[in-house]
Amino acid sequence: MTDDLDGINAQARDISFLVSYAKTLPDTDTSNVAAVSWSWGGISSLFAAARDPRIRALLEMDGSMRYFPGLVKKAGDVHPERLTIPLLFFTSEYPNYFEDLDSSYDGAPADLVGPNVLNAWKLGDLYTANMVGMAHGEFSSMFQRRKSAERFAEDQIADYGRDDANQGYAWVARYSLNFLDAHLKHDAAAAAFLKRTPAENGVPKHFMAIRFRAAQQPSTSPVGEKTSP
């Protein structure tokens, strides 16, 4: 891949190709498709979801659509403010920095300048889950397995150790499963799980915070946000 529009567009086409391929398999239901991604794949899956109506939900593990709004803007046909699908977005240790940042500050690289995607996500349900002690690479099980003790120490956040990173990843997986079950399978128990606070779900203290903003109708005024510590 390349970290430019050509690379993103190629990955987005790959995602749609895989959805088409899945349709040929006997054990798939392509009426309930979600794109799940990490890091740079998080911007490619946004492009795919904006162009492919078969994608009915988006799940991002610290996806780059949050960090490169200029590339989203540059695409021309990717409009987060128009998408009506639900989004679960996991962030690393910076819960609100990019949402509060004025991306138009002087000297900002063009790829970083543009409307914040999470702020624009108004027509679909939005869950933003901040994994307080997880570095960016710890959202990938492959990266976790490959990290030496020295490399882990370079990326380590505060005093969160490897066991904490593993436990955080397990909660990411559990919330991901419940999000997909709730929105694609309409599972009542999964929906109830998402409505509870992390503490009510058994998440240890100081591991995560989740914020929910319900989808609003285009003609209604913005709804308030509910924050669960």
Structure summary, number of beta strands = 6
Strand order of the largest sheet: 1-2-3-4-5-6
Q: Determine the fraction of residues in helical runs and give it as a percent range.
A: 25-40%
Structural class: alpha/beta
Describe this structure in words.
Helix 3 links the parallel strand 2 and strand 3. The radius of gyration is 18 Å and the shape is globular. The termini are far apart. The chain is α/β, with parallel strands linked by helices. The chain has 9 helices and 6 strands, in the order H-E-H-E-H-E-H-H-E-H-H-H-H-E-E. It has a 6-stranded mixed sheet with strand order 1-2-3-4-5-6, sandwiched between helices.
Which tags fit this structure?
single chain, 229 residues, six-stranded mixed β-sheet, globular, disordered C terminus
Brief summary of the model shown:
The chain is α/β, with parallel strands linked by helices. 39% of the residues lie in helices and 14% in strands.
Write the layout of secondary structure elements.
Elements: H1 5-23, E1 33-38, H2 41-51, E2 55-61, H3 69-75, E3 87-91, H4 97-100, H5 117-120, E4 126-131, H6 141-146, H7 149-155, H8 162-184, H9 188-195, E5 208-213, E6 226-228
Parallel strand pairs: 1-2, 2-3, 3-4
Antiparallel strand pairs: 4-5, 5-6
Helix pairs in contact: 1-2, 8-9
